[in-house]
Amino acid sequence: MESHILVVDDSAAIRKILQRVLRQTGMIVGEIYEAGDGQEALEAIKTKSVSLVLSDINMPKMDGLQLLAALKNSPAWRTIPVVMITTEGGETKVAEAVRLGAAGYVRKPFTAEQIKEKLAGILEPAVQL
Amino acid sequence: MNLKEFIVDSVNQSVLQVFSTMLGVELAPGTATFEDAKPDIDCEVFSLIGLAGSWAGAGSVNCSAALACRVCANMLMTEATAVNEEVLDAVAELTNMIVGNVKTELESKLGPLGLSIPTVVYGRNFRTKTAGTGDWISVRFNWDGDYLTVKLCLAPKDQGARHHVHLFDEPGVAAG
């Protein structure tokens, strides 16, 4: 089954890079949606079928941790896995993301291989071995 | 290793890692200098990000327009011949990653620090100035004869730096 992914980052550059990387993971990826902050992400989730969220932490309006908390507090959306992709490597932010229920954490700068490893077990592989 | 040396080491590690991972470019370690809060006048693209916590200040990345376009082209695997929104966004993200990784290293010595959203200024006739008492630690990297400079200014919170960008004769473009 195809996975529809929502990429949340205030940087259009990072959204573009993640679009490219996700297409190269070898996973079954359907639509890739984009949002520039947590508020836009919540609006997108209301109207689209999203099976995975990749989110930055530091963003204007609503940051990634607030978005994560909102999703995990919602009965409709709490099962959507959220992977944080951010420059925030401090133990406080990592611990907070884990406490709130993040499915994983990738630090920027990242390689395509790191994204692929993190998503293994979350997304379905394109070819069953 | 004192704090200045630690910051220089962190900046070098961060820049080399970000360039290698995100741009596919292997740079040599940069040359460090220590400056007082004098204005910056030798750049076309200037990107600034704030740091806050028990210590406060700012980090900046500055470079020529040509180097900014190369950053964008390598990072996004696209063509970039003139500074536009995409180029400014790429430089903003480069700054976020470089200073963000330095911040993470610094937290082991200075405690938790917050990182602001980056702001990028593009133009020719502007100068920047930081209010406050902190000195700048500047590390300059050579990329095929063009230069990218990373600067960091940090001081205990009550002496924290505030950065200003002054635009002169020609209007610039700011994104952030």
Describe this entry's structure for a reader.
The complex is a heterodimer of chains A (129) and B (176). Chain A is globular. Chain A has a domain at 1-6 and 38-83 and 94-105 and 117-129: Response regulator (Rossmann fold, 3-Layer(aba) Sandwich), CATH 3.40.50. In chain A, strand 3 (52-55), helix 3 and strand 4 (82-86) form a beta-alpha-beta unit. The longest helix of chain A is centred in the N-terminal third of the chain and has 12 residues, at 12-23. Chain A contains five helices and five strands. Chain A has helices spanning 12-23, 38-47, 64-72, 91-100, 112-119; strands at residues 3-8, 29-35, 52-55, 82-86, 104-107. In chain A, strands 2-1-3-4-5 form a five-stranded parallel sheet, sandwiched between helices. With 129 residues, chain A is of the alpha/beta class. Chain B is built from three helices and ten strands, in the order H-E-E-E-H-H-E-E-E-E-E-E-E. In chain B, 34% of the residues lie in helices and 36% in strands. Chain B has one domain (3-28, 45-156): Chemotaxis protein chec. Chain B starts with a helix and ends with a strand. Chain B is of the alpha+beta class and 176 residues long. In chain B, helix 2 (65-76) packs across helix 3 (85-110). In chain B, the strands form two sheets. In chain B, strands 1, 2, 3, 4, 5, 7, 8 and 10 form an eight-stranded antiparallel sheet that branches. In chain B, strands 6-9 form a two-stranded antiparallel sheet. At the A-B interface, helix 1 of A face helix 1, helix 2 and helix 3 of B.
